[in-house]
Design a protein that fits this description.
The chain is mainly alpha-helical. The protein has helices spanning 5-18, 23-31, 36-40, 44-63, 79-96, 101-122, 130-138, 156-166, 172-195, 200-232, 234-243. α1 (5-18) packs antiparallel against α10 (200-232), α5 (79-96) runs antiparallel to α10 and α8 (156-166) packs across α9 (172-195). The chain starts with a helix and ends in a 5-residue tail after the last helix.
Amino acid sequence: MSVSPEDLQHLQHAKNLLENPGFVAKVTHIIGMPIEGALAYLPASVTRRIAGITQAALVKALDAAVFTIKDVPGEQPSNRWHKAGIAVSGGVGGFFGLAGLSVELPLSTSIMLRSIADIARSHEEHIDTDDAKQACLAVFALGGRASADDDSETGYYAVRAALAKSLTDGSILKLISAIAERFSLHVSEKAAAQSIPAIGAVGGALINLAFIDHFQDMASGHFIVRKLERKYGPETVQRLYQSLPRRG
């Protein structure tokens, strides 16, 4: 089946988003300083807690009324409203610093998951299905590494394949655990940025805006690909995706 030039452009746009995540770059631009140093000095106690906090945040987000959005495929997403909500939660987190992470992260994760579901709906997903809900959760794994990854396991389709393996026994909690391992990298980066002296509430809000902007980009790319897969078939879209150049 031949793919239309317009759909090929959409696929290129999706690849541009998915293979150029840039969360750290966005934060560096916003706060005017690199965060790699802050990540190195993140307290060991916080680093150890990140994975647990992240997994708990995903479970709470899934349990929350995130998928109460009406199942109206094609309706435009409300990205600005979700960004406003997460900026407020980031301001609170920035005010309390690392101590507020366990309180702020579940809230911000729930807001982001609702935004992801909203974007999914705009790309004609039926968000009341288990498949769509799992696809929404999978967005948190995109653009991040797992501890066992090598360079060949960080691309978009490689991450999808890894997550699919975690669902072979039908356990949603096993899927959440696999997603949390990758999502926790971004949480660590966010925590490190918020730990920089003088960041405060305003900086926390800006960091959270970069956080949701990253995952809205990942969601847009992910659900463009899924929409095209429904139209042309997964194998055709994957082959074309991998043949396209990576553009920043």
